[in-house]
Amino acid sequence: MASPSLERREKGAGKSEFRNQKTKPENQDESELLTVPDGWKEPAFSKEDNPRGLLEESSFSTLFPKYREAYLKECWPLVQKALNEHHVNATLDLIEGSMTVCTTKKTFDPYIIIRARDLIKLLARSVSFEQAVRILQDDVACDIIKIGSLVRNKERFVKRRQRLIGPKGSTLKVRKVVLDTMKNIHPIYNIKSLMIKRELAKDSELRSQSWERFLPQFKHKNVNKRKEPKKKTVKKEYTPFPPPQPESQIDKELASGEYFLKANQKKRQKMEAIKAKQAEALSKKQEERNKAFIPPKEKPIVKPKEASTETKIDVASIKEKVKKAKNKKLGALTAEEIALKMEADEKKKKKKK
User: Fold this and answer.
1) 35 Cβ neighbours under 8 A, 6+ residues apart
2) What is the rounded CA–CA span in Å between residue 46 and residue 64?
3) Exposed, middle or buried by CB within 10 Å (0-12, 13-18, 19+), for 59?
4) For the purposes of burial, counting CB atoms within 10 Å of the CB of 50, is it exposed (0-12), middle (13-18) or buried (19 or more)?
5) What is the mean pLDDT of residues 80-96?
6) pLDDT at 64
7) Tens digit of each residue's pLDDT (9 = 90 or more) over 11-29
8) Three-class secondary structure of residue 277 per DSSP
9) pLDDT reported for residue 328
10) What pTM does this model have?
11) Is residue 40 exposed (0-12), middle (13-18) or buried (19+ Cβ within 10 Å)?
């Protein structure tokens, strides 16, 4: 692909280096040769650098999500117009959901197909056409960073991704800033160091020196404390001697003297031990049964208080009230009421006569 033009560039570069070495003055500093002069720009790659074009056709394609279909349909004529200026064809397949770019016979720039590939990738990743078309310029580059697998926790991922989104949806364009943000380092620290570097680059004396003494050193303070285990195992003190060997059944019988007893005596001891256990179990059961027959404790009887002699009771008035109540029937009229009733009856009889 365009090997003659590249060879010509290398030859031209070699001649310029030889000319610089030849015409270099004795008192000139080497650091001045390594620095790029102000206002210098690399000449653009033109058709004269590669008049024969490309030998083979190259193409790239990428898929895009369904929600980008409407936007790509509107701006696709502008995409084709921008790529046709560099003699690159672009096709949009709405059935498969893909975008394809390929070179033509008139394409002279061998690197333009790589820039066209980046253009369709940016469009598929929700970048506006106005921003994505800048990738076709020589002094613009892009970097697509996959951050989906950097943080496992979804809530932390969303919070840290939000720090990268700038004003009006613009995103920071430095890979280190993005990766450090996913590691819970705020982007303001990296931005501050970039601003300091920009100011240091303006000074001609500091260009060839180390900038570490000027850059701020930020320490990561959010250190996760190690969780203590629920069950703590206490290590025993180290002793060079092995643990004592456990006693066997024969050793226990020798210590108690059972080893020297006869078979009948051993059998008798076992039966006695069994009977003692049975008697103990029976006594416990009997105690539980007898609990039901034990009467509950009675409450202590409270003696009534003696009537005070200070309050005297009128017994005679109480007896009179009782007698009146006995003589009087329920619902009966008093003597005065009976007399009044009789007088009223007599008056009625006289009126009738």
Assistant:
1) 204, 207
2) 32
3) middle
4) buried
5) 94
6) 94
7) 444 433 333 444 445 555 6
8) helix
9) 56
10) 0.45
11) exposed
